Amino acid sequence: MAAPETVMALRAATATLGARTVLRGIDLTVDSGEVVALLGANGSGKSTAIRTVIGQVPLSGGELELFGTPFARFRDWRRVGYVPQRSTAAAGVPATVREVVSSGRLSHARLRPLGRSDRAAVTQALELVGMSDRARDSVNALSGGQHQRVLIARALAGCPDLLIMDEPLAGMDLTSQDVLAEALREQVAGGTSVLLVLHELGPFAPLIDRAAVLRDGVVERVADPEALHDIACHPHDHHDVGGSAAIGAGLSLSEVNPGTRR
Ligand SMILES: Nc1ncnc2c1ncn2[C@@H]1O[C@H](COP(=O)(O)OP(=O)(O)OP(=O)(O)O)[C@@H](O)[C@H]1O
């Protein structure tokens, strides 16, 4: 069987915000079809790590590749969907739910009016997140959790090969979390790779292939979700998962965890 394509690779990545070195040498990969969760305490660098992947934060050192192409030469941004950390940034923008989701198709339409396939993708994305009945409403009339669902639909409407989400479950009630988990399951079944920041795995747990735990700007350990659950429940008697001790000793993930797909 052919080796899986690596859709995203950060290698020895460092990044600085203001005077602060926030990422201090991150190795992280997402392979084709994989769902990788980034976990870690507040301020550990999770958002910064994924913002480097979409080019919002420049690397000060190390490498980033997207779909096998070095970041500096990567142009195929319609293959990447991004859902930012929940914000009220769109408040005050006079747009309907459907218009906001349609903006996720703009890079496909390439300055032409949206066509039939674009409209179908928007309709499907709205259905996936359970917001079809609100399509004509102003986004200003939505709750925070509904607004988040619209941003997720906007990313899904672009049919990305790599979907990047920053805390998509934040502020979601349990029913909405289940709706999103189902939407994500369908995307993954269709071949989408996913990198997402989570504080709790919640209903996404069964979908996650690997979880990387950040601490102070470095990947402290990489584990499968069951191992993370063990650590959370029995913090004092867990065995090493994915070579955290070796990572602490400065080895790369591929060296300590050769079974990890890269
Ligand atoms: N614009 C900025 N200028 C300087 N430092 C920043 C800036 N943005 C973030 N930081 C710092 O970078 C560190 C990492 O922030 P980041 O948002 O990546 O953390 P996080 O793991 O996503 O946290 P959270 O779970 O709270 O969202 C924090 O110490 C934060 O204070």
Q: Kindly provide the name of the CATH class.
A: Alpha Beta
One letter per element, helices H and strands E, the order comes to EEEHEEEHHHHEHEEEHHH
Beginning-to-end CA distance, first to last residue:
15 Å
Rounded to an integer in angstroms, the radius of gyration calculated over CA atoms is 19 Å
**CATH architecture verdict:** 3-Layer(aba) Sandwich
Domains, number: 1
Gross geometry = globular
Mean pLDDT: 83
Hetero compounds: adenosine-5'-triphosphate
Give the helix level as a range of percent: 25-40%
CATH topology: Rossmann fold
Low-confidence stretches: 231-262
Strand order of the largest sheet: 6-7-8-3-9-10
Count of alpha and pi helical runs: 9
Report on the biggest sheet.
6 strands, mixed
Strand content: 15-25%
The count of DSSP E runs of length 2 or more, i.e. the number of strands, is 10
**For this structure, what is the CATH homologous superfamily?**
P-loop containing nucleotide triphosphate hydrolases
In short:
By secondary structure, this protein is an alpha/beta fold.
Notable characteristics:
Metal ABC transporter ATP-binding protein, Rossmann fold, alpha/beta, binds adenosine-5'-triphosphate, ATP-binding, transport, 262 residues, 4-stranded antiparallel β-sheet, Metal_Ion_Import_ABC, 10 strands, AAA+_ATPase, globular
Outline the structure in words:
With 262 residues, this protein is α/β, with parallel strands linked by helices. The protein has one domain: P-loop containing nucleotide triphosphate hydrolases (Rossmann fold, 3-Layer(aba) Sandwich), CATH 3.40.50.300. It is built from nine helices and ten strands. It has helices at residues 46-53, 97-102, 106-109, 116-128, 144-157, 174-189, 225-233, 244-248, 253-256, and strands at residues 6-17, 20-31, 35-40, 61-66, 69-70, 80-83, 162-166, 193-197, 210-215, 218-223. The strands form two sheets. The protein has a six-stranded mixed sheet with strand order 6-7-8-3-9-10, with helices on both faces. A hairpin with a 2-residue loop joins strand 4 (61-66) and strand 5 (69-70). Helix 4 (116-128) packs antiparallel against helix 5 (144-157). Residues 231-262 have low confidence and may be disordered. Residues 17-18, 20, 22, 40, 42-48 line the site of adenosine-5'-triphosphate. The site of adenosine-5'-triphosphate has 12 residues, from strand 2 and helix 1.
